[in-house]
Task: structure prediction
Amino acid sequence: MAMRVLAIESSCDETAAAVIRDGRWIEGNAVASQIPLHQQFGGIVPEVASRAHVQAIVPVIRDAMAQAEATWDDIDVVAGTMGPGLAGSLIIGLNAAKAIAYARDLPFVGVNHLEGHIYANWLAPASEEHRPPAEPEFPLLCLVVSGGHTDLVLMRGHGDLTRLGRTRDDAAGEAFDKVARILGLGFPGGPIIQKAAESGDPKRYPLPRAWLKGSWDFSFSGLKTAALRLVQSFPEGEVSVSDVAAAFQESVADVLSTKTAQAATELNARQVAVAGGVAANSALRAMVQERSPVPVRLPPLKYCTDNAAMIGSAGYYRYLAGVRSDLTTDVSANLPIA
Result:
């Protein structure tokens, strides 16, 4: 019998809801983006984000339910993001999910946002059910590059995750935003730097790589500083934005893809999965596929950034494993992936 999860996500600057069937099939998926609100500030303003979530939460839930042509009687489980993220943003979505679960007398499952990103690799539109893509295989090595997080995780099964490495300072996504600001490109940095890099020469101004040998950890603070010093070395108005963007992007992708490939080999992973907003970067996707010793799973671009479909998938598998969250569950802004 089919099981449908209503999932809600509001960890940062996207308000999202989705209806997921059997952990894989997207029947409804709605996202309200706040990018235009925050662009004028050059970054996310937490108070602005929280207020926008309050305004958007009911419409996106209605939208997702309408797309799925689902009534409340069709929903079996409610899942909500409990962390990590901005505390004020998380509260809006988590409380909405708990309120629905309470009002409808449905089981509730709190979901780790970063684990949710991994489950984007399980998703497909319900229209593709007649030719279902194969599920990822365990042990699965997961590179999670999402906003303020860069983690390398070994997933031995559903709910069985071990964090192997993490960023020691700036995450890859943060570095993209900061270097975009240095170059005067705007916000968010990821897609803007990728576009600028398309016409640049990554070899013209080589930038450093922090390998942190002997660990699976990452560091991008030094790269960010090196990019700043490089830009400052140009006479005013003469910086080659495309070349600096290309050099920066290649440095990030080089480190992430190399360490992921090495870990996959040493840990005998069956497959590699890339997840999170930075997983939409074309240079990173190409390098990981080129260097990985095992098959690579890449989510469709629209499921790399924050969405509720991934939360619904993760919540489904958590529910099958017997996880039930209490309605007193609170947000955890710094919740680790494992």
In short: Residues 4-123+302-320 form a domain with the Nucleotidyltransferase; domain 5 fold (CATH 3.30.420.40).
